């Protein structure tokens, strides 16, 4: 991490944008965030995707009380204030976004906004950073034009070492130094054994997940907890054997799922059941679907993994064919008395489908409907 930071600091000696390139999970964005805090600079972070639009960076006319009014986007706001900007996942951005950045990156150093009829120059102290993952093996990422990349000072961010893993485990979590070293060494062995493939599949985020569980449990060793945490990621017996060799503990084929009136226990995780708050019909004696979960051995591993994700507040990605990924989520929610909002995503899905957006309202029609 120190070597990566030195490369970035040296790059900042030039008046050019800096592009950080490296595998996922090596701390590219975190490195810029930490540097901005140390330098006392305001940082605008923009996450780019295939559906990003120029308006997401520059701004747009948005509805207001008296019609529409202009709202600066994060890039335009940073230009005016002289702040730092971090563009995450640069090689996911569509071509119109890259073209809008050209004027900021070249000798002009200005951004023309047609809606305002104004050319906004870079404020004093403005600096632009960008990050990208390798385009070779990561889906959706493409190689950017060389003419565009030449506008950046490119910095390669090397993969984290065992020493970096130990620093993450020791400084971020309230663990004894021995436990922190063991967690870091365990994840490093998983990476070196190639359990889940090549570089990028095991990184500092996995150290954080393991440390979160270890810091909250005292009933198992680090090796046993690592087998529980990483076991669900194994797609076949070969990966399970590699994982067992790396962590030095057996991966349990199935975890018992026990139901009690007040909680569900699965794989050492207890989740409260909310039936006292929202009772379900026919559930007074723990009958119906919740009881079937305890008897279904095929569902037990998935339920135990999902229960751990819920307990640790981790996002869960469940994959499989047909209804296989959905069924354990619905059954766990039903057993715990939780509500599930199901959203079907497709290539044309937009962020407004999840967050909401502005809709035109006919006030006269609403008044007529109310009067009727």
Mean pLDDT: 84
Give the fraction of residues assigned to helices: 40-55%
Structural class: alpha/beta
Name the poorly predicted regions.
276-295
Distance between the termini: 68 Å
Rg, nearest Å: 25 Å
Physical arrangement of strands within the biggest beta sheet: 2-5-8-1-9
Largest sheet, in brief, is: 5 strands, parallel
Could you tell me the strand content as a percent range? 15-25%
Ordered list of secondary-structure elements with their pairings:
Elements: H1 2-11, E1 17-21, H2 28-39, E2 43-47, H3 54-58, E3 59-64, E4 67-72, H4 74-81, E5 84-88, H5 95-105, E6 110-113, E7 118-121, E8 127-132, H6 146-149, E9 152-156, H7 162-172, H8 177-192, H9 204-216, H10 222-230, H11 237-247, E10 257-259, E11 263-266, E12 269-272, H12 289-295, H13 300-312, H14 326-336, H15 351-355, H16 363-371
Parallel strand pairs: 1-8, 1-9, 2-5, 5-8
Antiparallel strand pairs: 3-4, 6-7, 10-11, 11-12
Helix pairs in contact: 7-8, 7-9, 8-9, 8-11, 9-10, 12-14, 13-14
């Amino acid at each position: 991490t120190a070597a990566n930071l030195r490369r970035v600091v040296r790059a900042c000696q030039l008046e050019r944008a800096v592009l950080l390139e490296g595998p996922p999970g090596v701390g590219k964005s975190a490195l810029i965030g930490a540097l901005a805090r140390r330098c006392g600079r305001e940082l605008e972070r923009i996450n780019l995707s295939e559906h990003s639009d120029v308006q997401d960076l520059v701004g747009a006319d948005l509805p207001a009380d008296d019609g529409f009014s202009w709202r600066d986007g994060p890039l335009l706001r940073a230009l005016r204030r002289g702040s730092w900007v971090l563009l995450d996942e640069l090689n996911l951005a569509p071509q119109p976004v890259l073209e809008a950045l050209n004027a900021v990156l070249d000798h002009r150093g200005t951004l023309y906004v047609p809606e305002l009829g104004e050319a906004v120059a870079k404020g004093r102290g403005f600096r632009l950073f960008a990050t990208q993952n390798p385009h070779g093996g990561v889906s959706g990422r493409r190689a950017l034009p060389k003419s565009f990349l030449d506008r950046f000072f490119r910095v390669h961010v090397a993969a984290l070492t065992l020493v970096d893993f130990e620093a993450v485990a020791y400084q971020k979590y309230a663990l004894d130094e021995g436990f922190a070293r063991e967690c870091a060494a365990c994840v490093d062995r998983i990476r070196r054994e190639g359990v889940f493939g090549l570089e990028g599949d095991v990184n500092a985020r996995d150290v954080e997940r393991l440390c979160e569980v270890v810091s909250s449990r005292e009933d198992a060793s680090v090796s046993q907890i690592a087998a529980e945490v990483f076991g669900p990621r194994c797609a076949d017996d070969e990966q399970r054997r590699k994982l067992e060799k790396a962590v030095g503990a057996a991966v349990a084929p199935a975890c018992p799922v026990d139901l009690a009136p007040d909680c569900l226990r699965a794989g050492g995780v207890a989740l409260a059941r909310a039936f006292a708050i929202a009772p379900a019909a026919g559930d007074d004696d723990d009958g119906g679907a919740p009881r079937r979960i305890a008897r279904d051995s095929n569902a037990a591993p998935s339920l135990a993994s999902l229960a751990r994700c819920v307990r640790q507040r981790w996002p869960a990605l469940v994959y499989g064919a047909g209804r296989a990924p959905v069924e354990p989520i619905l059954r766990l929610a039903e057993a715990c008395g939780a509500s599930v909002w199901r959203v079907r995503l497709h290539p044309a899905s937009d962020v407004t489908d999840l967050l909401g957006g502005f809709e035109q309202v006919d006030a006269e029609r609403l008044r007529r409907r109310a009067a009727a």
